[in-house]
Amino acid sequence: MVNQEDPRVLRTRQLIREAFSILLQKKGFDAITIKDIAEKASINRATFYAHYEDKYALLEEITERAFYEMIPEEVKYAQEFTDEICNKLILLTHKYIVTFYKICGWNSKSIATLVDNKIKNMLQQTIEDIFLKGNTFSIKDNLNIKILSAMTCSAVYSATYSWFMAGENNEINLLVDIVRPYVMKGLDLYRTSNV
Fold first, then answer.
1. What pLDDT is recorded for position 195?
2. How many of the other CB atoms lie within 10 Å of CB of 168?
3. Which of 151, 111, 132 is nearest to 28 (CA)?
4. Domain named HTH tetR-type: which ranges (predicted)?
5. How far apart are CA 25 and CA 14, in angstroms?
6. Domain range annotation of the chain
7. Would the CA dihedral through 138, 143, 145, 148 be positive or negative?
8. How far apart are CA 65 and CA 117, in angstroms?
9. What is the pLDDT of the chain when averaged over all its residues?
10. C or N: which end of the chain has fewer Cβ atoms within 10 Å?
11. Contact 95, 14 (CB under 8 A)
């Protein structure tokens, strides 16, 4: 087993991630082989496999790292889901989708589906964590919070993705002004209900 804290391990993983990112832009995900990644990172295939099971595991790590690095501090430490936090999550989701499009081009159905699902899961978990921290909702059981998180995530992600695909990337404030009231009004039903 590889010691994840060893500076050499960290450096090798960084080289692998950088090589993969460069190859994504040049070749596209489907065309990339482990041999390509190893050659670009100046390592051998065995070294790659010592760090990652396959290119899908590498993609998952890169997707996750990028998402968590983009989360604003206010969202990480939010104690309740406010208008401002909602705004930041919409902007974060948009920025993430745009960034990944530039890196990967979404030219592969397999990568688009993987990244899409990973983003949704991370966004939903971020929202759920905020919901669980505060005393915002009258419902407290985990299943209901999970469902509420899923609905909120779906609204934020779907609207943002549709906005991006429609090419409306210059009017991001308009997107926020459309999505935030929809999300917050829906959440208000659970803030005041006795469910």
1. 43
2. 13
3. 111
4. 10-70
5. 17
6. 7-52, 61-192
7. negative
8. 15
9. 86
10. N
11. no
Helix 83-104 to helix 7-27 angle, to the nearest 10 degrees? Answer: 70
Higher pLDDT, 115 or 158: 158
Residues 173-193 pLDDT 10s: 999 999 999 999 999 887 744
How far apart CA 60 and CA 118 sit, in angstroms, is 7
On whether the CB atoms of residues 88 and 189 are closer than 8 A, the answer is: no
User: In this predicted structure, what is the pLDDT of residue 17?
Assistant: 93
Instruction: Report residue 88 as tokens.
Output: 């930041």
Query: Which CATH code is given to the segment(s) 7-52?
Result: 1.10.10.60
CB < 8 Å & 24+ apart, contacts of 132-139: 133/78, 133/79, 133/80, 134/79, 134/80, 134/81, 135/80, 136/80, 136/81, 136/187, 136/191, 137/187, 137/190, 137/191, 138/190, 138/191, 138/192, 138/193, 138/194, 138/195, 139/190, 139/193, 139/195
Joined together, the tokens standing for residue 73 give 């501090």
DSSP secondary structure letter of residue 103: H
User: Residue 134: pLDDT above 60?
Assistant: yes
